[in-house]
Amino acid sequence: MQSIEAFLSLLFFITILIPILPNTEQPDHSLYQIQLAEDVWRVLYLRGDFQSLSELGRPKIESDLGIIGNQTSLCFFIEGIEYTNCRSGEPHKKLVSISKTIIFNGALKKTTFSISSR
Fold it and tell me: Is the pLDDT of residue 36 over 90?
């Protein structure tokens, strides 16, 4: 009799446990991605990459984006593909996009900074 009770208790326990176990959803990384975008933007700003946001500044910005991109395996885009470390034409999955304001030729200019996975 005790064996039957133990078996029924185990069966009841497993019946309750089955709906709980599949709730292991993938974690949401969106906050991390936004913070990463902010940090990369801050690094570029502190390195002075936005001092000369023109054709003359392109090699410096893209070089810095390339270094960060090699360390993170991500693609970074400023103003679409105007400044990027991924010009290969491979398809990308956009992860996050943030809007930033910079001073360009003495006037405020709104730019978009995006991160994509390769």
Answer: yes
